[in-house]
Structures
1.
Amino acid sequence: MALTDGLCVSNCAEPLSLFSEIIELNVGGQVYVTRHTTLVAVPDSLLWNMFSKKSPKELARDSKGRFFLDRDGFLFRYILDYLRDLNLVLPDYFPEKSRLQREADFFQLRDLAKRLSPRMSKDDSISEDICQSDTEEGAPQCGLGSSGVVETLRTVSAVGGAARSPSLDSRKSGYITIGYRGTYTIGRDIQTDAKFRRVARITVCGKTSLAKEVFGDTLNESRDPDRPPEKYTSRYYLKYNFLEQAFDKLTEVGFHMVACSSTGTCAYTSNDPNEDKIWTSYTEYVFCRE
């Protein structure tokens, strides 16, 4: 009995976890496999509370028994990377920083959210250092309507803007190719019986981060959902079928057309050559931002 008690004391000092060492997660439809120790790496975070304070039966699961989190599955990879070594590494151009900050706030990762805050970014905050040095020399403080301080900020922004951050430079350049397959019918009387362009789908080819920056929520990523921002894809397409709408989007963010290519075939609706002709074409437009 004494031996049993001794074992109890030894085991009770460090209670065994109710969770297995390897844990499968379903985050917004994306499956992740990680260690239990990774999920509880940051005390008092949401994941720490879920996987250390609760039992497995209290957590939501999907149909295959994975623990389910109704959050952005794409951005969760960066949350998980941060938990592994408490270090934040993002691609050179990462347009999802504000959304990732929102995810960090949700998961109660305060240090990560602080790093992602624009006010803490060295690239985005030059006014605080300038204001402090001006104040020490007796110059008017920022926010008091001093035209000299405003002009100083404008000058620093204009002169040093190009060298502040590689990510800003990469934002200014790149190529996006817009493609579509269309059909139209020409009847025997071309002038009165022409059924013009019918676009089935508009495809988007190029760097993932550029495509998301330009088209945002109108971009359908279902055919290539896990493509990292720095990689290229040819499997995205738009949620609408108006070429001019796509062109407007590209023009608004500084792109201009540099090339165009098209191929076409013709077929009859029947064996009678006098009947309507159906033309099918595939066209690509190349846009560039320098």
Note: The first helix runs from residue 2 to 13.
2.
Amino acid sequence: MRLCRTLSSPRACSARRGIHLGTQETTTASPLPPTFRSLYRLFLRATAASVLAQPEATARLRKLWRPAFDHAVHIIRQMEDEKTPAARRDVLARWYSRWEARIDNTLTLLYSSAIARGMPHRVTQNLYRMIQSNQVLRDPSLPGKKPWRGQLPPDAPEYKVKPVKLLSPVQRELGQHFRCSPRILGEVVGMAEGWGGLSLGRTQRRR
């Protein structure tokens, strides 16, 4: 009940408590505004509630939205910098106001996912599955990689360069689809964010 009351009014709760967000801060930097720290803290609780506090899903969803908060920290630091021109500070303030509105709408999505099993819950589940798949996704047109074994001698056959085989038409087509899929998925996510006025996080693919 306490969580439901908290999530139902994110702006009212954003000024209560704070949490230290350390990636963008240095030891000499001034503390972040209490409203931002409490908003981040509320967001952490909301992500856990949206997936019924499942540890792996909670950690992956928090990692998905962490870049959005890191970028907001960078904007806050620019606004606090005395060297920032007044015109630039006004632009940053408008951006931050829009960002807060998007995060509030995202909190509503997470709250709906926590209390019902409808479309919002399916969205959070699909986001978790997308992050999970992104960890092992690789270009099917590339040759397979074997783990390096340091106990082998330098002249071991495993270290010899093998001739590169030409890709088959099927492999070339799969590679093309693989390279286009992130852009297509990004466009779909961007349209969803624009339509709903919220944030669906950002992923980074392993190379």
Note: The two ends are 43 Å apart (CA to CA).
3.
Amino acid sequence: MSIPADVQEFLDGYPEFDDQADLSNNLLFYQNKLRCRPDRKLIDEIHEEENSWFGDYDTLEYKHGFIQWLFPIPEYGMNYQSQPLQRHEIESMKSDPVVVKRVVQSYSMMLDFYGMTLLSEESGLVGRSKPPRDFATRYKNLVRSSHNNLRISRILKCLSIMGLEHLNSGFLLHVLNEQSEHNELNSPGIRSSMDRWWANCIRDDEERDKIGTMIRTARNGKDGYIFTKSEYEKYIEDKVQRQGPETSEDDVPSEGR
């Protein structure tokens, strides 16, 4: 199966992307110094204030301008009041622990929106949302609202750019386990996005090949094979013990699905 052109550009590190030194809105937003547009929110207001968007599923579903601010990549999305992520911003953001923590908070918020929870920042292990959250309702929304497939491509690319690529494997294999063992999140649309886009949003060639092989094996289902939760957890645990959380060595950003 061929890799989509936008993902290939991401894997190649966007060789034709020219840095614009006068653009720094993504950095300023994640430093809590600039309000996103059009929503006019600081990042800490989205995450932590009384009117946090965490758990505000209507806002996260029906607003479309925030995703380019929360998960910037060097490509315009649907919000032309945002800016593509610049090369000079990447190093500043990756080297700031507060900014990196905020990126992880953004990821955790979107996982909750999708019916999932980040069980370990170190390993990237993901599980179902626990009560009082209702993972089943959120899963149904993810299956029904296909625009979230595009958002997830952007999220995974951004995590990789920000040196958080180990989180991608945790997400992908959680979804694979849900599909294989429980027939959840198993719609044709999600499988297509996962197999062609999401699973290729990993710049580490070896890890990308491993994830792709596991997906193909589960899809084939030979001899009744099921990718179980215990197999998922063991892979993530072994990965951490073997090499620690992976980081993306290529700092050049990706495309914006």
Note: Confidence is low (pLDDT under 50) at residues 245-257.
